[in-house]
Amino acid sequence: MHLRPLVAVGLLALAAGAAALTAPAPAPADEPSPAPAPGTASSPAPGTAPSPSPEASPSSEASSAPEAPPTAVTITGAAVDPKVPSRVRVTLAYTCAPTGQPRSLNTSVEQPDPEDPATTAFGATRTSPTLVLCDGTPQAQTVTVQSKTSTWLTGTDSVVVTTLTDLGATPPAVADARRIRLDLPPVP
């Protein structure tokens, strides 16, 4: 006889608990807060603003701290080396923050021969991590890519891809790819 009301109360408690777990948090009420406990500081009277604090709050300090620049890399140009036609000089611009984590800069160039579809010049290079300066300022670097298959053709489009990897950054890698017509560099 007493079992039926206990089961009903138990089911009601389970339903209320499940609803509390799945329901979004209630919005703050416009009711006044409860009175402070004895021995604690009282809150200001309604309608008055608190006096300004001479110290910055932690949230304003966090927002005023300089953020690390995002890791970025851009291919700014490419030209066939006039003295060694199997080399291409690729100029890059990049920025990365000092993280103390492993980093690398890889660049590749691919150029199909328009007269012979079976021939493709291809080369890649990896810049030594000690030469990849990550101090948060914009950097420029020229890398040399040696063709592993044939000499580079002037006046012909190529695909240039570069990837800057910095495992301590967010995102950990960025890349740029461009279609660039390879020519000899301009004569100074």
Automatic annotation (TrEMBL):
<feature type="region of interest" description="Disordered">
    <location>
        <begin position="22"/>
        <end position="71"/>
    </location>
</feature>
<feature type="compositionally biased region" description="Polar residues">
    <location>
        <begin position="101"/>
        <end position="110"/>
    </location>
</feature>
<keyword id="KW-0732">Signal</keyword>
<feature type="compositionally biased region" description="Pro residues">
    <location>
        <begin position="25"/>
        <end position="37"/>
    </location>
</feature>
<feature type="signal peptide">
    <location>
        <begin position="1"/>
        <end position="29"/>
    </location>
</feature>
<protein>
    <submittedName>
        <fullName>Uncharacterized protein</fullName>
    </submittedName>
</protein>
<feature type="region of interest" description="Disordered">
    <location>
        <begin position="98"/>
        <end position="124"/>
    </location>
</feature>
<feature type="compositionally biased region" description="Low complexity">
    <location>
        <begin position="56"/>
        <end position="71"/>
    </location>
</feature>
